[in-house]
Amino acid sequence: MKTNIISIDGKKGSQVELPLQFLEAYRPDLIKRAVIVAQSKDRQPYGADPRAGLKTSAHHIARRSCYGSLANRGIARMKRITIGTGPLAGTGRVAPHAIKGRKAHAPKSEKIYKTDINNTERRFAIRSAIAATADKDIVSGRGHKTEGITEFPIVCEDALESVTKTQDAFEILELIGLSADLERTSERKVRAGRGTMRGRNYRIKKGPLIVVGNNKGINNAASNIVGVDVIEVKDLSAEMLAPGTHAGRLTVWTKSALDMLEKEKLFM
After folding, report:
1. With 0-12 CB in 10 A as exposed, 13-18 as middle and 19+ as buried, what is 155?
2. Does residue 268 fall inside a structural domain?
3. Residue 222's beta-bridge partner residues?
4. Which of 106, 208, 219, 260 is the most buried (most CB within 10 A)?
5. Burial of 90 (0-12, 13-18, 19+ CB in 10 A)
6. What b/e sequence results for 52-77 when a residue is b if at least 16 CB atoms lie within 10 Å of its CB, and e otherwise?
7. What is the DSSP code (8-state) at residue 7?
8. Residues 211 and 82 in one domain
9. From CA 82, how far away is CA 68, in angstroms rounded?
10. Domain that holds residue 53
11. Any domain includes 168
12. How far apart are CA 163 and CA 222, in angstroms?
């Protein structure tokens, strides 16, 4: 399968043969598993204080003959505060249903969230996600705006890797035909829920991904473009190609990135 190489001026040039990774079968189930495994390794353990809800003077006396026993008093035999005569005297503590009591099933920091995947499956998932970037129906079905893009995958000349200014990178992406998708990612929506109080007020949409053979400045140039990510081909992962487990991210490949895929047999 061949595709045209687009210059940074937006003009079509010579054709290039796509590597075998683009011919892999589309497996959304395997891609989803690989992304979830990658996300599980970034999850931070958390848990409650083992003494939470137990730091109290409340105690329980069940023997009838003892002073302060709760027997024959018509109240629940739970641990209660028996010290003093103030408003807290006689109130229940410790029990999960009591005020300021312990949690019935508190989270434990010992829990292991990390999961693993075989290297064969992981490489298969990456190849499948690479092949999904060459299918227009999968890319547009993910929500990307593909108006003005004539063929997939999008392959650009190596001059894109040397761009160092954000304005130049933005103009090149527009000339390639990504102006509609860049406009889509520029729209910000206020996040629903408690996250607005924790420094993440807005949801940022995932835009185009630029895959390069060698980063010669394009990473700095594209870092200020909302939704755009830059990655070297050797560092590709299923999570980068399929954010949120949904494959078909709009991807721009450079000629050198395709050459490295073919020569070094990456992810094979």
Report:
1. buried
2. no
3. none
4. 208
5. middle
6. ebeebebeebeeeeeeeebeeeeeee
7. P
8. no
9. 7
10. 48-110
11. yes
12. 9
Q: Which amino acid is at 114?
A: K
234-237 long-range contacts, CB within 8 A, separation 24+: 234/260, 234/264, 234/266, 236/126, 236/130, 236/211, 236/266, 236/267, 237/38, 237/126
Q: Digits of tens for pLDDT over the chain (268 positions)?
A: 889 999 999 888 889 999 999 999 999 999 999 999 999 999 999 999 999 999 998 988 777 777 777 788 788 888 998 877 888 888 999 999 999 999 999 999 999 999 999 999 999 999 999 999 999 999 999 999 998 888 899 999 999 999 999 999 999 999 999 999 999 999 989 999 999 999 999 999 999 999 999 999 999 999 999 999 999 999 999 999 999 999 999 999 999 999 999 999 999 9
User: Do the Cβ atoms of 88 and 81 come closer than 8 Å?
Assistant: yes
